[in-house]
Design goal:
- With 416 residues, the chain is α/β, with parallel strands linked by helices.
- The chain has a single domain, classed as FAD/NAD(P)-binding domain, CATH 3.50.50.
- It has 12 helices and 21 strands.
- Strand 16 and strand 17 form a beta hairpin.
- It starts with 9 loop residues before the first strand and ends in a 16-residue tail after the last helix.
């Protein structure tokens, strides 16, 4: 993308989640006058219910060799996080076919190498944003502890650990006692652990997005709470974004609307195979847990935050605006009681968010095909919080007409 003339250095970012806000801040740092638009307030959608993890080594895709054999059993287990409502089974089938194809060994290696390039730079990308906003204390670096309550689960996870290790990610395999030395609040049923020190977490994802958005506005940015309906584009001139209340013009438009980006991209002629993958959380009183934990046997993420203990799970492939299924979700989340003795199952808060998930576990970053003044920044799946700042940095480099610091070819919109 060619650098824009000074009078054209205006940018409009659709989506005020972590990716959109970080993108807006990096565009602002590149000298753009930035407008941020979302139907919700900053951080109020998927970012508000994020599990909190910053995966500095999260380079392994979710589709791995042999997974296809396990999917039927997952779907039949009421307490497994994977679910597809009957009404969405046929619409989601093409996505799942692509997902399973992405689990072939050669493709897994390609995806892992590509993801490593972005996850390796996440803390450096966040640093200037959180420093300028005075939010450095919101990112903690205690690592992440993967725990196992059976030897079989530990061995079943070995392929994924070795995949990360082969790319230089340091992971320490632990026995049960060593695992409890890292996090003493874990119970005696933990028989193995794997400690990934490079990881971090955010103590309140929603508040961090809000603090960053406030800094954007203080620095001259504009924030509108409006629902985007579509676009007006022509051969010449900047694109126009049409909302329910106004029409906005900018020299550059960035679509960073998470799970809602699929419909917006389709209006511009790009069909991306993205599904809304809904996850659930509940907040409990924190009994003193210090290190974020992922219980691999049950696929539960447990993260200490400033306002309690967040327990997260769920991979529910349902339409983005359909009602939540809290009965099923809470039954899954309450299994955390079996991991931490004395955990008080007093629900302080609950929530649901729709992850924008691509079948190859990689985001969509780059210019919209046929629309050089529109950039895509969505499809981050489970690692939206992890990749928020580095995505913003890459979009800023594209908008400024500079070579990107990371090769974004694997994330191009037309890769399917």
């Amino acid at each position: 993308m060619a650098d824009m003339k000074s009078q054209e250095k205006t940018a409009l970012v659709i989506g005020a989640g972590i990716v959109g806000v970080c993108t807006a801040l990096y565009l602002q740092r590149e000298g753009f006058k930035v407008t941020l638009i979302d139907k919700d307030g900053p951080g109020e959608a998927c970012s508000a219910v994020n599990a909190g993890g910053l995966g500095g080594g999260s380079c392994a895709p979710f589709s791995l060799p042999g997974l296809w054999r396990k999917v039927p059993g997952m779907l039949m287990n009421r307490l497994h996080p994977l679910s597809v409502p009957p009404s969405n089974f046929l619409p989601a089938t093409p996505w799942f076919i692509r997902f399973l194809l992405a689990g072939r060994q050669r493709r897994v290696d390609e995806i892992t190498d590509a993801l490593l390039t972005v996850v390796s730079n996440i803390f450096e990308a966040y640093e200037p944003l959180v420093s300028a906003a005075g939010a450095q204390d919101m990112i903690q670096r205690q690592g992440r502890l993967f725990v196992f309550t059976s030897r079989q689960a530990f061995e079943n996870n070995r392929y994924e650990r070795d995949l990360r290790r082969s790319r230089g990610v340091v992971i320490e395999d632990l026995d049960g006692d060593q695992t409890r030395e890292v996090e003493p609040k874990l119970g005696p049923n933990v028989v193995h652990g794997a400690y990934q020190r490079i990881n971090g977490h955010v103590v309140n994802p929603k508040r961090m997005v809000q603090v960053l958005a406030e800094h954007l506005v203080r620095s001259g940015g504009t924030l509108f709470r409006e629902k985007v309906k579509g676009f007006e584009t022509g051969a010449d001139g900047p694109p126009k974004v049409v909302t329910e209340t106004a029409t906005h013009t900018a020299g550059l438009v960035v679509i960073a609307a998470g799970a809602w980006s699929r419909a917006l991209a389709a209006q511009l002629g790009t069909r991306v195979p993205m599904q809304a993958e809904r996850g659930y959380f509940m907040m409990l009183p924190n009994p003193g847990l210090k290190v974020p934990v992922q219980w691999n046997d049950k696929l539960l993420a447990i993260c200490p935050m400033e306002h309690g203990l967040r327990v997260s799970s769920g991979a529910e492939f349902a339409p983005v605006d359909s009602p939540p299924d809290y009965d099923r979700a809470l039954a899954i989340l309450r299994q955390a009681d079996g991991l931490i003795p004395g955990l008080e199952m007093r629900e302080l808060e609950r929530g649901m968010g729709a992850r924008p998930s691509m079948p190859d576990s990689m985001p969509v970053i780059g210019a919209a095909p046929g629309h050089p003044k529109v950039l895509f920044a969505f499809g981050h799946g489970h690692i939206g919080l992890t990749l928020g700042a580095i995505t913003g940095k890459l979009i800023g480099e594209l908008a400024a007409g500079r070579p990107t610091s990371i090769d974004i070819t694997p994330f191009r919109p037309d890769r399917f």
